[in-house]
Write a structure and sequence with these properties.
The protein is mainly β. Helices cover about 5% and strands about 65% of the residues. It has an 18-stranded antiparallel barrel.
């Protein structure tokens, strides 16, 4: 029996040998963080192997897979934690069909899924997706399951805005409509999402998102979105964003944006998404909830170097009042040394200017990755 299975495997690989690709990525990440009273050390290394099999010469039907082996080593004055992680990052079957000026893409397996804002949820899931493209409208339907994921790699939110530390048995369902050129090259999008909890907690959530974006004049463009959500259909919460971008050249971009995540204001409740999303660049808490974040950012590309600077004012508003807490900033430099070797440096911090708390924090992060 084993010989038959081995023979079938060899014949299968041989049949598709002309369309088989594979490669890998080796990465190293070293991070130092400090609250100005103590220093913590964080180290991780990752080896990822990917493969791609085309089932026809046109390449519109294929199977992609990626697995990784990594570890996280965290050292602080109170702890010394070492966590090995083995994960299936990607296992995706895709087939594409074209019908005149229309197209359909069917996907199934484990792959990353994101909402229109990338702040409600953005993570791998096991599921199926159907995308339909027509001349005036694009439609998408997705249904998945989260219970088979490695929870050390994906952080999902539970009741009370707390990160769940155990298996998360949710069925996310998405329906998306996008009108790419509704009027004067303006894009309009609508997305309805439902997070169905099949555990005993019945922590069901629903979200609806409206998004508008497009050019204003010359190199100036905008994007505005608002998401209304509900927990168990008992409350309302809101996440809204406004962004203006100025791109005079392909190598320079200046942006100004503001993000509002509701707290307990008027008839609204604190915003809770599906995937964990932190409000600060420098620390892993708090979650994006009960806060207003006006920010400016600058990105610049010069030859093989890319730089990004972001500065945000952190203005908590857990209830009716609003206060200025401090400044959150990040600086990232990416060096593409060779086509298969990249070096990244990031410095981020939060400077607490309030007189109530002292959450000043700074991070220095150096990482390198090599593909083969």
């Amino acid at each position: 029996m084993k010989k038959k299975i081995l023979l079938l495997s060899v014949l299968f690989i041989s049949f598709f040998a002309h369309a088989f690709e594979w490669g890998g990525l080796l990465s190293d990440d070293t991070k130092l963080s400090s609250d100005l009273s103590s220093i913590s050390f964080h180290q991780s290394n990752n080896l990822s192997i990917w493969a791609n099999i085309n089932f026809n010469q046109s390449g519109n039907t294929y199977l992609s897979a990626q697995g990784s082996v990594k570890y996280y080593w965290d050292i602080s004055k109170d702890s010394n934690d070492f966590l090995p992680v083995y994960n299936l990052d990607l296992l995706k079957f895709v087939t594409l069909g074209k019908f005149g000026s229309s197209a359909a893409i069917f996907s199934m397996g484990r792959f990353s899924v994101s909402d229109l804002t990338s702040k409600v949820f953005s993570q791998p899931l096991d599921g199926i997706s159907l995308e339909l493209s027509f001349p005036i409208v694009n439609m998408g339907l997705y249904a998945g399951y989260s219970g088979l994921l490695n929870t050390s790699e994906v952080l999902m939110m539970g009741q009370g805005g707390e990160i769940q530390d155990s298996s998360c048995n949710y069925i996310p369902v998405n329906y998306t409509l996008i009108f790419p050129s509704l009027l004067a090259n303006q894009t309009f999008a609508l997305q309805l999402s439902s997070i169905i909890d099949i555990s005993t907690e019945n922590y069901n959530r629903a979200y609806g998102t409206l998004l508008f974006k497009g050019p204003i004049a010359g190199p100036l463009s905008y994007s505005v979105s608002t998401t209304v959500g509900s927990e168990k259909f008992k409350n309302l919460m809101n996440l809204s964003e406004l962004s203006l971008s100025f791109i005079p050249t392909p190598f320079l971009q200046l942006s100004a944006n503001a993000t509002y995540a509701s707290g307990s204001q008027l008839f609204l409740s604190p915003f809770v998404g599906f995937t964990s999303y932190t409000a600060y660049n420098s620390i892993m808490y708090p979650e994006l909830s009960g806060v207003l974040l006006p920010a400016i950012s600058l990105s610049l590309i010069h030859k093989n170097i890319c730089g990004l600077i972001n500065v945000a004012a952190v203005m908590p508003m857990p209830e009716q009042s609003i206060s200025f807490k401090g400044v959150d900033f990040s600086l990232a430099l990416i060096f593409n040394i060779f086509s298969d070797l990249q070096l990244n440096f990031r410095a981020a911090g939060f400077y607490d200017l309030s007189k109530v708390t002292n959450e000043t924090n700074i991070i220095f992060d150096l990482s390198a990755s090599m593909s083969f």
